[in-house]
Amino acid sequence: AHDRPHEFHYWSKDRILELTAVMPRILITLTLLAVVQAGIAMAQVDVGRDLFMENCVACHGETARGDGPRADGIDGEVPDLTLIARRNGGEFPLVETMSFIDGDTRESRYSPAMPKFSDTLFASPMILYDTGDGIATPTPSALVALVEYLQSIQQ
Question: Is residue 31 over pLDDT 70?
Answer without folding.
Answer: no
